[in-house]
Structure formats: C-alpha cells, structure tokens
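REQUEST ID: PR-0412
SUBMITTED BY: lab tech R.K.
PRIORITY: routine
TASK: structure prediction, single protein chain
INPUT:
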Amino acid sequence: MKIAVFASGTGSNFAAILESIKSKKITNVEVVLLVSDRPEALAVQKAKDERIPVHTFRAKDYPNKQAFEEEIVEKLRQRYVDFIVLAGYMRLLGPVLLQAYDRKIINVHPSLLPAFAGKDAIGQALDYGVKVTGVTVHYVDEGMDTGPIIAQRVVFVDSDETKDSLAKKIQGQEHQLLPEVIQMLVNSEAVKGSSK
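STATUS: complete
OUTPUT:
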C-alpha cells in the first residue's frame, strides 16, 4: 500500500511510521510522499533525510482551498497513493481531498474523541480536570475530528501533570497506535482484495 503522510510540525508521528516500516512492525506499506503546509516544518527535513518525496505549499499563495487541494490530489495521483495519514496536519480538509480519497484518510488526535476535539486537546483536557484522556485514530470527514473512530488508547492523567508531561505520554501512545492502525488497514485491504 502506498501512503502519503500529511504533517505541519515536527513529524514525530511521521518518524514513528518510518521506524515501524524499517523494523517490520508495519509490512507491505511504502511512504511515497510527505505533504506539508509549512515548508520549514521539521517533518519536511525528516522526509528529505529519508529521501522521501515532499510536496510543500503555503495556503496564502493560492486563491482558495480548492486550488491547493487540487494540486495536492494531482501529486497524490502521480505517486499512486492509496491512503492518506494525517499526522499532525493542522488544516481541515476540504471537499476536493475528501471526495478523491473517501474513507481513505485517517487522522491521529490527542484525546479520546468525541471529547476535546479541535486545537489544543491536551490543554483542554487539563483545563477540564479529567483523570483519563488518550489518543484516537479516526477516519476523516468534513467536520473537525468527527469522523468514525477506528481505535483509541487510554492515557491516565497524574495529579501533578503538566502540558509537556501529558503531551509526552500521549505522543508515546500515538507512536504505537498509529502504526498499528495502518497495519490493520493494510491487512483489511488485502482481505478485500483477495475476496474480489
């Protein structure tokens, strides 16, 4: 399965996916493109270091979302991308991408959805005073973190938890759960393919 990873930041989940492929925790998967809306993002450098093709853009350089998404879809098609993984991509997807890759886009989110959707989920959880939060991997739809949930993992919040300490715990779970879900999806696609 050829996948594209979309990332806006440090690319720690992107790195976890690559590491899982190298260590054979994920099999039959190839990352063929990294897409980033921040050309200076650390994820972009990680992709270049691994010789993975990169497509970067700045939204403000386009007349609208449709324009830059059409360009992205063209890049995905050129590389025969089967599946998209949003790994810290900080933009809502529009109809162009959602229709081109219907039920073929997943996202990792740092909370137990539907709780604490949107930005700063970790800060939201701490402000609310929850004792349990976690990680969700879900299909992407037109809403913000509203698509069907595929898998979740619980993270316990200590009484002296800070945003940084909780973020580290959550990232640790993301780095395990996201590769597991990718492998699960690859396996289910293989089953679908063999039953055709």
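NOTES: The chain has one domain: 2-194.
REVIEWED BY: pending
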